[in-house]
Design goal:
Blueprint (H helix, E strand, L loop, with lengths): L2 H23 L11 H13 L6 H18 L10 H11 L3 H6 L6 H11 L8 H12 L3 H8 L2 H4 L7 E5 L2 E5 L7 H4 L23 H8 L5 H13 L4 E2 L11 H8 L11 H13 L3 E4 L2 E4 L1 H11 L4 H16 L9 H10 L2 H12 L6 E2 H11 L9 H21 L3 E4 L7 H9 L4 H4 L6 E4 L1 H13 L9
Antiparallel strand pairs: 1-2, 3-5, 4-5, 6-8, 7-8
């Protein structure tokens, strides 16, 4: 094996391990490792869930060992992390039992058993969904004796597995009871249903400026978040600033940061802590600032932000950065320590803003704004099948509130425009919301509010639609 191939395999392994750590163990920060995290990664995630397609049984422990040493040597380890020598001892204690656990099929959960069988049939894990669906149909036609070769002891624990129908979606597997609707969206909230509601067959042609003009708009209409990120990088400077033991801003530094960003000094007292925390995490995600143990330094993303604001980058690069930030804003924030139900709710909430934006894109294609309440009604009518039948009104209100709050963030990013009268809002309340950078209409569903996509917003939504293979032409 060449050095290039070995390096690629190492990168594949660390990607699989860190992604699983994020998705299944709620450990999204790859630099933060506490006592017990190494054991949990391998024995709670890898052994029962992960197929051995990347040499994880043989090389998994050494992969994390090398990664931890790299974090330690480059001062990238999170300030709340356990000392690396302690973490390496945990790996040493795992070494005698982990390979045997990987080979112990009694520990394997459903998805690992199924995808191991799929690999044995010569089908790649990244095969097209239709290929995996065909395999699931083939399996569903097997009798219980044939199924046992794949499912093993699980059939004794779950008698329904002997006759149920298998569904596969995005690395997940479920076996549903005979006679139950074979609809993936009823099992996984983020799965599109096959009734045609997820995507319009045709979107109207829209007019857009050329990329150079759009990139100039990024430096003006779409620059609010970029300026805040640049201000945070300038405050961080070349070092000397420190964080608390959670890797967050020290309380004593918050007033200085607020001043540097031009935000109200009493923002914390008004309840704006979460807004500053979101900006902080956005800066880390886009490498605008970096943590080096307890130190804060500006990262290479700070230079990119500065170049975009100055108009010193290619238009495509400026649009990519602006769009990437918008995509982050569109994602609903997740709870800090989610339970299984929390994750299910987060997955259910995730598609609602993109669905709203698709309807808004179609309704404003002729250049006229739409009424916010009208678009919201269309959204809930069109996707009524997505509302849990147990309490559809409550879930409809949750979806509508999420969309309004996301629109408020997108308005600050220059993607949408909102025209609200505010007649029914108490003046004092409106002033408090304004100090926090929040819009009163986002919390109060007032009638008569107009919403429209800006040219940047229309560009953003069209790019997302094209990525979903939708037909979203430009006007002649």
């Amino acid at each position: 094996m060449s050095d290039g191939e070995a390096g690629q395999q190492w990168r594949d392994r660390i990607t699989v391990l860190l992604q699983g750590r994020t998705d299944y163990l709620n450990r999204p920060d790859p630099t933060r490792w506490r006592s017990g995290d190494v054991h949990e990664l391998f024995m709670t995630y890898v052994v029962p869930r992960q197929v051995d397609a990347w040499g994880l049984a043989e090389h998994g422990l050494d992969t994390i060992r090398g990664f931890l040493r790299f974090l330690d040597a480059t001062d990238r380890l999170h300030p709340a992390s356990t000392r690396v020598p302690t973490l390496l001892k945990e790996l040493d204690r795992l070494a005698p039992k982990y390979p045997a656990a990987m080979a112990d099929t009694s520990r394997w959960q459903l998805a690992k058993r199924v995808f191991t069988a799929i690999l044995a049939h010569g089908i790649a894990l990244d095969a097209a969904p239709g290929v995996l669906d065909a395999w699931a149909e083939w399996f569903s036609a097997r009798d219980p004796e044939d199924r046992r070769a794949v499912l093993g002891e699980l059939m004794d624990q779950r008698p329904g597995y002997a006759t149920g129908r298998m569904l596969i979606h995005d690395g997940q597997v479920e076996i549903i009871a005979p006679g139950a609707p074979a609809a993936k969206h009823l099992v996984w909230p983020d799965s599109p249903c096959d009734c045609g509601c997820e995507q319009q067959a045709q979107f109207p042609p829209v007019s857009l400026p050329d990329p150079a003009t759009l990139a100039k708009l990024v430096t003006t209409d779409g620059a609010d978040f970029l300026r805040l990120l640049a201000g945070l990088a300038a405050w961080a400077g070349d070092g000397g600033k420190t964080v608390d033991n959670r890797g967050e801003l020290r309380k004593a530094d918050r007033p200085a940061v607020l001043t540097a960003l031009g935000l109200p000094s009493n923002m914390d007292q008004l309840g704006g802590t979460s807004s500053l925390t979101r900006l902080w995490r956005l800066a880390i995600e886009f490498d605008v600032i970096r943590l080096r143990r307890t130190q804060i330094v500006s990262g290479p993303g700070a230079r990119l932000v500065a170049d975009v604001l100055a108009g010193d980058t290619a238009p495509e690069r400026a649009l990519d950065l602006w769009s990437d930030i918008a995509d982050t804003l569109i994602q609903p924030p997740g709870p800090p320590n989610p339970s299984k139900d929390d994750k299910h709710m987060h997955d259910w909430l995730r598609p609602w803003t993109p669905r709203f934006l698709g309807i808004l894109y179609a309704d404003t294609g002729a250049g006229e704004p739409a009424r916010l309440d009208t678009v919201a009604e269309k959204l809930l009518d069109k996707y009524a099948v997505k509302l849990p039948p147990s309490d559809p009104d409550v879930f409809a209100a949750l979806a509508a509130a999420l969309v309004r709050n996301t629109l408020a963030a997108l308005a600050g990013h220059g993607a949408v425009t909102i025209t609200a009268t505010g007649d029914d809002v108490v003046t004092q309340q409106a002033a408090a919301f304004a100090a926090l950078g929040m819009a009163t209409w986002a919390l109060h569903a007032e009638p008569g509010i107009a919403v429209d996509l800006t040219d940047l917003g229309r560009y953003l939504v069209r790019q997302r639609l094209l990525a979903e293979n939708a037909h979203a032409p430009l006007a002649d």
